[in-house]
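Task card 7
Instruction: Convert sequence to structure tokens.
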Amino acid sequence: DGMRFSSPAPHHVRCGSGWWHPEVHVPKGISSREKAVMTCSGFGLSQQPQLDLLVWSIATVGRVMLAAGVAGGSGSVARRCHWPISRHPRARFLPARWVSGLSAARRCNAGLARMVRACSGRHSRGGEKPRMAKSDIGRAAAGEAPLLQGPSVGLYFTKYAGAGAAGTPTPPWSHTCWSFLGSFIGMSCIGLLEDFVVGPILHLNLLVAAFGAMSVLLFSATKAPVAQPFNTICGNTLGAFVGVCVVSLLEVVGLDDCFWLSGALSVSLTIVCQELTNTVHPPGGATALIFSMMKSLHRERFLFVFAPAFLGAVVMVAVAVVINNLAPERTYPQWWVPVKSAPEPKQEQAIRTLQSDTVPEMFEESMQGTSSEDPSCAESACRAYLDKLAGAGGEPGPRPKLSDTGFSFVGAFVGMAVLGLIEQYMLWPYAHLKLLVPPFGAMSVLIFSTSKAPLAQPSNVVIGNSIGGFSGVLAVLLMNALGLQHLVWLCGALSVALTIALQERTNTVHPPGGAAALLYAINPAMHVFGWSYVFAPAFLGAVVMVCMGVIMNNLSPERTYPQRWRFDDVESLKA
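Output:
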């Protein structure tokens, strides 16, 4: 509808947009309207009848969506979907089953057109020009889902500019000191337990790269929902369980050597399980990828779910509860169990608020020692510390929609598959560099499952992960200079703590950066890359994942990625 055409020659047709399509053969017996629709669909008769007829059938879907969703829901083009395939001049070259099958597909397309028009609620008359309401433009500029139903390439690319969200303020130096101390102690506990308990007695691994990302979450982003104990323990355990199941399944079908496939499946299925159970935890993706990529761990099978996945997460949560609550401005956890509690009466809520306001002051006074000899003040400080262990009374977020989980799965699978294929066919054969490493499992969960989080924005992803690679290399060189290279636990703890400190001071906190630092510090096989480790996989892999996040996330009508592009937040703070 709404198209005009003129035929200077029998084989030339012009559509309303003014584009000429020369040398298009129009068969006899087809109306003038059909000529225009065929021509604007972008096909003509070629020397390949199968391909030509297949394109004719499949192109109907695009015309149906255009007519029903964008061009005012006009039904004239949609009604053409029941054209019999036998009217196509090339139909006689095809087997009868092809013609019948394609005819059935076109009838399905006609039903699709009616369904799209009914769902979109647009019943405008034929010939109405495409239009976009002002509210749609405003919502697109604000990064929100447009009210206009139906596909729109313009709206898709509008999302690439970002949602315009404000940045986060740089944390104070006191916050960075507590983060450095907590992460150093937490990683030291994991390393010492492996050296003196888990390794010698159970003959299992405990110090793996995933705990570098977990350390950044637990000690630098303590209020984030993905950093709470339930998400940490259950999400990390789920990642290990999914990784073991995927590897076992691929071994049955004989694809255990296809590392890019096992990595992509393990990470994407981990996201699905975490979102369905509302236990999203990015290091769980790294845990799944670790088991998929390291053949030496395959013999452990489901013991890997216990150690390092479950046991290591419990140890990290215990250390985080003890260390974080020593800081006056911190309360960890925000909640223990993701169950929304009943609303409190206003009187009790006011009392709780008053107590929470006075607790940090009493705790700070006791720590300064101004009244250290007063037993009542010390008792109040201890009571305030113990009260923090009960949690801050926060509530978890809602479980993601099933449709949103589908986009998360597809995005994560494609992103991890692209990383693996680039390494297998480009980086490793020509430059002998790695790209598919465990930190990108955690990065994939962040970008595709928590795309609105400040930790998942491009500046944090690229700079924060590069800082992690830099810190890992620097820590190893420093330990070698001091002659302490045999203390792997100390090198790992130093690399993660240094990563957190640098990320906070540059306002680019990104948990997978901790995993990137720890991977280099504890894995001697990575030391051969030297400073090139900062470029690939740390920097280059992050750039690839950001590109895949922008492409895949924005396919969802409910997502806009990124929320912001700019690195600093000075302008947003002034606003």
